[in-house]
């Protein structure tokens, strides 16, 4: 009732599903006013699982899962970089996720 728990989710093992690459993409927009338009296009790319509107170097920061480096290249070149309003991207491949947890609210 308080709205604290918004949803429950399953944690998928993407590697067992054939998606061996997890990457984070920093996105530079041509101008920040294009955020909503770019957001709607990025939501259509099934490999993207998280999208954040950020401060700092990037306008947006996304998390994607791909089968391999060729699939990652395909998503970047044929999908993401074709979105009108994206100036350029910067990719960081995750070698290992060492921590994934909820915020501890009390000591």
Structure description:
With 107 residues, this protein is an alpha+beta fold. Helices cover 18% and strands 29% of the residues. It has helices at residues 35-42, 69-79, and strands at residues 21-29, 48-53, 60-66, 86-94. It has a four-stranded antiparallel beta sheet. The protein is globular. The mean pLDDT is 94.
Order of helices and strands: EHEEHE
Mean pLDDT: 94
Note the main sheet.
4 strands, antiparallel
Number of strands: 4
Structural class: alpha+beta
Fraction of residues in H or I helices: 10-25%
Q: Which assembly state applies to the chains in this document?
A: single chain
How do you describe this structure in short?
With 107 residues, this protein is an alpha+beta fold. It has helices at residues 35-42, 69-79, and strands at residues 21-29, 48-53, 60-66, 86-94. The chain has a four-stranded antiparallel beta sheet.
Could you name the key traits of this structure?
single chain; about 110 residues; alpha+beta; 4-stranded antiparallel beta sheet; 2 helices; 4 strands
């Amino acid at each position: 009732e308080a709205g604290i728990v918004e949803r429950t989710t399953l944690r998928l093992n993407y590697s067992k599903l054939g998606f061996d690459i997890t990457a984070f993409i920093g996105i530079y927009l041509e101008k920040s006013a294009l955020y909503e338009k770019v957001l709607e296009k990025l939501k259509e790319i099934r490999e993207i699982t998280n999208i954040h509107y950020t401060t700092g170097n990037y306008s947006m920061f996304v998390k994607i899962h791909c089968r391999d480096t060729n699939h990652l290249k395909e998503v970047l070149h044929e999908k993401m970089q074709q979105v009108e309003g994206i100036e350029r991207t910067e990719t960081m491949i995750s070698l290992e996720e060492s921590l994934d947890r909820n915020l501890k609210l009390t000591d």
